[in-house]
Amino acid sequence: MNANKLSVVLCWHMHQPEYRDPRTAQYQQPWTYLHAIKDYVDMAAHLERYPAARAVVNFVPILLEQLDDYGAQIGEFVQHQNPVLLRDVVLRSLVAADSLTDPDERVRVVRALTRANEDRLVRRFEPFQDLIDLARAQLTSTERGEYFSDAFISDLSVWYHLAWMGETVRRSDPLIQSLMTRAAGFSVSDRLALLTRIGELIQGIFPRYRALAEAGRVELSMTPYAHPIMPLLLDVRAGTETLPHDPQPQGAEYALGAERVRWHLQHGLAVFERYFGRRPVGCWPSEGAISEPTIHALSQAGFTWAASGNQVLKNSLAKQNSVDSGCGHAVWQFDHLSPALFFRDDGLSDLIGFDYQKWHADDAVGDFIGHLERIAQSCSGSNAVVPIILDGENAWEFYPDNGYWLLDALYKRLSTHPQLVLTTFAEVVERVPARRILPHLVAGSWVYGNLATWIGSDAKNRAWDLLMTARLDYERAEAAGTWDASTQARNRQQLAICEGSDWFWWFGDYNPGDAVRDFDALYRLQLTRLYELIGLPVPSALSQPICLPPETTGDQVEAGGIMRRGQ
Predict the structure, then answer these.
(1) Mean pLDDT of the chain
(2) 92 falls in which pLDDT band (50, 70, 90)?
(3) pLDDT-based confidence at residue 1 (cuts at 50, 70, 90)
(4) Quick check: 136 and 152 in contact, CB under 8 A?
(5) What is the domain range of residue 153?
(6) Which residues contact 386 (CB under 8 A, 6 or more apart)?
(7) How does pLDDT run across 429-479, given as a tens digit for each residue?
(8) β-strand pairing of 332-333 with 305-309
(9) Where are the alpha helices (DSSP H) in 142-251?
(10) d(Cα 513, Cα 371) in Å, to the nearest integer?
């Protein structure tokens, strides 16, 4: 690596929460497999196209398990042709609409098949728009599912999946190209072929990224198993470090939180290694949320680097009445045991996440590189690194052609630039042993540098109180000593799912009402199942909504995620 070049790290975070019903394993939302065929395969293809490009791709272990599950169930269906093998009704509608016999279920499926970005995924394809217009007109006039024929649902489902297909697949796959020449009337064999291709794409994700990692072109990193906010498990009052006057849950602490953080890290490492054949050295903590105890936990787990948002760095420097002197893009650490710490360039990351979708791709990449060139000039000879960290899924739905042109130009121009070099966090850690010390680290995340997205409001606090009570009840049940090893492993995993960050994210009037309802219900279902598994009565509070759906929606809403600026 040329030491005179500015190091630039592109880190893409791939994350979806646990969507399976804990009793039936039926998927409640389809976003895991849809992002797989659209975003995970596209990102791999862009990296495969440019051998000199480098990137960090971060996966959440609970997402990896669901991807594996989707690949397996599609493979079993293709072999046995039994609709019950497909545990996602949206996926099943593609090949077995006649198995959707409940009229209410048919309505839910049709509604689901109309959920796609209006500008980029619906209006782009005239046949898809025509089918959606018909579906919406019918839904407006009636809620009777039997009025939607099997043929109509099948055609709508084909186009739904074609619209969600990755752009690199659309441009290269003969089957996809052939299906897209037709408006309707897709045969059983057409639909089975499309499902088979979806299964192949999902099953190909692991070997593709594994090959990129083995070739040294991608660093694979991870997030704790079920995406918990580690600072809050370790200290439920951690959010008051930045927002001391926010209301807090009634419970004083999360029982044995340090033990739970260790479990998420160790179990996550085991799952990650099972799928990629290697142990990651880096961790993007859930939502970039860190604190001093969190850094110690990451160090004990053996990670050599971690990352967060730049506002966390600013808050930490402000605590010691200091500012970030120098070029502003240093490698940091908390103490002598701390892993290397990288702080996201919020401005540049948010340009990709929010602004460049409105630009021509060449202009956007030119502007982006211009910013980097100015940093390179101001940071010459300082071992600077610019971390660009953002969601690897949700931004692209707002771009033309799933961000194809921006990503293509970005990798092409950055991988050949005379002043800039694409690299990985692991490579920087090896090359730059000298780091700047942070005497204090203020708890926070990539979102505004605080933890308010997950705690500190009425609904979020109620959700935490339910979880803290469940944790105490769990300890009481475990202490009885009646669980064998397999029962304990099953129960610990169910507890981990309840500890995931996404439930708390969605409580709030900045989110769309349907998403609030869906995640509220799924969170309470997960907690209810936990009580069933540990053999204790289910609290009556779990039968009531935690958060009433708002009338308004949030900043940018996407099917499967909501994005917010980090500053």
Answers:
(1) 94
(2) very high
(3) low
(4) no
(5) 31-47+59-212
(6) 6, 7, 8, 9, 329, 345, 348, 372, 375
(7) 999 887 899 999 999 999 999 999 999 999 999 999 999 999 999 999 999
(8) unpaired
(9) 150-164, 167-170, 174-179, 188-214, 230-234
(10) 38
Q: Is 187 left (phi over 0), alpha (psi -120 to 50) or beta?
A: beta
Q: Which residues, including other chains, have CB under 8 Å from residue 281's CB and lie 6 or more apart?
A: 221, 302, 303, 304, 305, 426, 429
Residue 40 lies in a domain: yes
Whether 160 is covered by a domain: the verdict is yes
* pLDDT tops 70 at residue 221: yes
Q: Count of CB atoms within 10 A of residue 260's CB?
A: 21
Distance (Å, whole) CA 236 – CA 453: 14
- C-alpha angle 95-97-103 in degrees, rounded to nearest 5: 160
Query: Does some domain include residue 20?
Result: no
CA-closest candidate to residue 97, choices 201, 21, 192, 29? 192
pLDDT band at 132 (very low <50, low <70, confident <90, very high): very high
pLDDT at 327: 76
Q: How many CB atoms are located within 10 Å of the residue 551 CB? A: 7
Yes or no: say if 491 and 483 are a contact pair by the CB < 8 Å rule.
Answer: yes
- 494 and 529 Cβ atoms separated by less than 8 Å: yes
Using alpha carbons only, what angle is made at residue 138 by residues 134 and 144, rounded to the nearest 5 degrees?
140
Distance CA 423, CA 5 (A): 11
Beta strand 385-391 with 332-333 is unpaired
pLDDT at 319: 87
Count of structural domains within the chain: 1
When pLDDT is cut at 50, 70 and 90, the band that residue 554 belongs to is very low
Q: Is residue 95 part of a domain?
A: yes
